[in-house]
Amino acid sequence: MSKKVLFIVGSLREGSFNHQMALEAEKALAGKAEVSYLDYSAIPLFNQELEVPTLPAVAAAREAVLAADAIWIFSPVYNFSIPGTVKNLLDWLSRAIDLSDTRGASALQDKIVTVSSVANAGHEQLFAIYKDLLPFIRTQVVGEFTAARVNDSAWADGKLVLEDSVATSLKQQAEDLVQAIQ
Ligand SMILES: Cc1cc2nc3c(=O)[nH]c(=O)nc-3n(C[C@H](O)[C@H](O)[C@H](O)COP(=O)(O)O)c2cc1C
Q1: In what residue span(s) does the NADPH-dependent FMN reductase-like domain sit (predicted)?
Q2: Following DSSP, what letter does each residue of 126-161 receive, concatenated?
Q3: What percent of the chain clears pLDDT 90, i.e. is strictly above it?
Q4: Which of 20, 77, 151 to mutate to test the pocket of ligand 1 (most atoms within 8 A of CB)?
Q5: With 70 as the cut, is the pLDDT of residue 63 above it?
Q6: Is the pLDDT of residue 1 over 70?
């Protein structure tokens, strides 16, 4: 059975450069793992009062995470930090599935996770935050995180062009992820 990698793109923007990077990563995983994209657009801002009964959008996101062997997050940098979109999603997913045992397993328990990012500045700070957060929510971080700059022409023509070294790093990250889920 082929391995499943769930992509989380941390930008909801049409034409997102992080989404474009995800498409490149998908090519790097072709033939090695099945890729799907998590649609988390219907998940509301976290509110403990909304946890019970489980919202359909949250249940669907949990199912997608549980069915995946690994997660690959493609994250913009917002103010040198994690975009609220991704943090909100991870907060929801970090909650115990059975709330009668709040320390019990979440859908993310032991999940293998890696991160890449397209931005102009702040990758280092962003990656440091993910490297603190992801183990805290009981996931296993793998691979060297790939950082890409927004190339100068990208805002004019909407097309992200990855430098050769970045494309190589992305392929290596895909390889490392595949190795980790064998
Ligand atoms: C609220 C906000 C904060 C941002 N902060 C940063 C930042 O700290 N560093 C940076 O390089 N770009 C920053 N940007 C610009 C984003 O990197 C840029 O919009 C990028 O294209 C977002 O990724 P996307 O193309 O996948 O949507 C910020 C953008 C927004 C909307």
Answers
A1: 4-145
A2: HHHHHHHHHHHTT-EE-SPPEEE---TTHHHH----
A3: 97
A4: 77
A5: yes
A6: no
